Amino acid sequence: MPKRLYLFLFFFLLSLTLFYNLGERPLFGVEGRWAEAAREMSLTHSIFVPTINFSPHITKPLIPFLLIKASCDLFGENEFAVRLPSAIVALLTVISFYYLARKLFEERYRWLAVFVFSSTIGFVEFARLAQSEIYQLFGVVTALAFYVNYRDKASFIGYTGFFVGLLFGALSKGLTAPTVLLTTVSIDLYLNKRFYHFNHKFFLTLVLSLLLYFLPYYLTAKALNSPLPFYLWFKENLKQAVDPYDNLRPFYIYFFYYPLWVAPFSLILIFCLATYFPKFKTLASDERWLLLSNLAVFLIFTLAKARRSYYILPILPFAVLLIITFLRNIQSNSRIIPSKLLENLYKVLAYLFISLLFISPLFIKLYRYGLKFPFLILYLVLLLLSLFIILSFNRKALSFWHTFSLISLSLLCLFYAGIQPIYSESTEKLTGEFIKGLKISLPYLKERKICYIKDKGDPVANVYFYAKITEKVDPVMLTKEDLKDCGIVIVRKELLPEERRLLESLGYRIREFIDKKEKSKSYFVAYVQSSETLNTPSR
């Protein structure tokens, strides 16, 4: 086991990875949906009906919305507050994973499991995003931790903890968590004949959990006075798996994303799978369970017709635990392949990681960015920590795999907590903040509506979040009649010359926010130049 100093080092490094510069990066992708819906929940004083642009947005479960809303109520409506619940939940996931690994491995390998889990791309990628994936992962890991710790006896506490984790995952993302958990637990129950768990305590907890699961849907339906939440539950969970209306990706995408989320330990996983399957009958009980669980989860997501890269993230804890069993086997008796072979391959990778860490400022200069102070602080701290880790390995105070995990986490920290947030740009943020500024600096605009051009597409929720809208943004056509009440007009993607001339002839001034890489992220904001009527010619 690493000494307390190295555990402190690990948690310090993990905290940097999760929390440093957490609010620097503009909202990315679907983060705005969670952020804006939570913000509007505060405006409408509704905790059961999230809205975006003041229209119900009830296709997603409530837990992330509620936690983001609570965070924004405490810390303000900003990126840090929006992402803080995700980072805290990620930290709790690591703690839950320790209690899971503690039951499966001796002390040295339980901490190695925690180190490996925390330094995978899949964990770090979603730990810093205001999305539901990390909430779901916490639910899966927590439920597994309770199951493994109480699986040898019928325990009401064990059943309660398991279903609490399952409910947290289900009410964060959907039926993915229950599907993964019930499938993998069923495999273990069958392999080890643990049928004593089918008792009155289990079924009582199951019934109570089902009631608690559907309670938020009932309360949302009651608030809307409509059965729509139950229809959307069916559409988004059951129907989407077999007859999806979107997310139609090729069946083979998980052959890429499965190893990607486990990276940089994917090579070990490949060695493990190639070794374990031919020797399945000789494997220990937990090795067989974890191997079959990885296979089952992979097949479930592959066979489902709706596919996205992050859908398969719940496989991560099973993959890491399987990897640790493999490392323990090759280091204890070398019955599979020599431990040194794998170590030497990863030593090359470790040297590459250290080199990338060392020369990272050169890459930033190569892309003609300035070396900003927050990045330099993080860079120097990580450089010193990495040198200390290497010295500790040379003194044999740390094993190679603990060392590699910490170096991997250092590099991920540099990218996700340093480079990515500090050097990210967003036309959506610039657009939203410009609209917010217009409403403040030009008081006469408060008397007019904010509109968007219907046939150009809706502005994304990120724009609404930064604009701090307080009323519905209406869709209009680009005609004089439709625009007569619009003080601000949002145009997405493109503005044709004749459209520009029309807006200018009606007295609008136009500001552009162009994204050269993605046309859909380009915005044009037209606003009236004075409090006079809209048909006043522009000058």
- Structural class per helix/strand content? mainly alpha
Determine the fraction of residues in helical runs and give it as a percent range: 55-70%
- Uncertain residue ranges: 534-539
* Coarse shape: globular
Mean pLDDT reading: 92
Can you put this structure into words, describing what you see?
The protein has 539 residues and is mostly helical. Among the domains are: 245-337; 342-422; 427-528. The protein contains 21 helices and 7 strands. The strands form 2 sheets. Strands 4-3-5-7-6 form a 5-stranded mixed β-sheet, with helices on both faces. Strands 1-2 form a two-stranded antiparallel sheet. α1 (4-19) packs antiparallel against α4 and α9 (176-191) runs antiparallel to α14. The protein is globular, with a radius of gyration of 26 Å. The chain starts with a helix and ends in an 11-residue tail after the last strand.
